Amino acid sequence: MIKAVIFDLDGVICSTDEFHYEAWKTLADRLGIYFDRKINERLRGVSRMDSLDIVLERSDKAYTPEEKLELATEKNECYKKLLMKMSPADLSDEVRETLLALREKGYPMAIGSSSKNTKQILKNIGLEGFFNAVSDGTNISRSKPDPEVFLCAAEYLGQKPCDCLVVEDADAGIIAAKRGGMSAAGIGPAAEHPEADYRLDSFSKLKEILF
Ligand code: B16
Ligand code: MG
What we know:
- About 45% of the residues lie in helices and about 10% in strands.
- The chain contains nine helices and six strands; from the N terminus they run βαααααβαβαβαββα.
- The protein has a six-stranded parallel beta sheet with strand order 3-2-1-4-5-6, covered by helices on one side.
- Helix 1 packs across helix 4 (about 65-85).
- It starts with a strand and ends with a helix.
């Protein structure tokens, strides 16, 4: 039985994919490394440092850990500037209404995101304080597909993993949810993932699963 819901942030609650793409593309161009939207798709749900390793796969140069940290910081500074454009208008009516309906039904809800910018994004889109718990890139040491971020979210909610439904747009997130012993609903690119228990063609379809 599903008693609580854990939402991924980027690609589920809101869309920051384009900002991530622009920031990684700016960095890759400066370094003279080829980068396109197909490569960007591989970064979905993947932590910042793991994403950098994917971006650098096409580089001839070997970077030291210190240099990599500088590059990741450079990308993040660019990304944070782009995030400043986000406002409550970037939360769709469908997502807002569905979240309110779930809250009305009494479902405890948490965020389970790889992003260290989670709290800033939630603030920008007007969802600061909305969720019962937030587990993100700042409280984990292992990135999706490791289940750590979702297990922490379940713990913060005081729920057993088997009672939680994870909503994810990334293959790495579906794998993480299943490894953590949770149910998984795939949306967008993850809707086709073979391990997904539910396939959502829209966010509001969650109500059909939960009501
Ligand atoms: P940051 P999610 C993920 O968020 C993004 O999908 C992924 O592209 C990004 O690299 C990762 O967060 C880390 O983000 O650089 O802001 O810490 O989908 O898990 O909500
Ligand atoms: Mg995502």
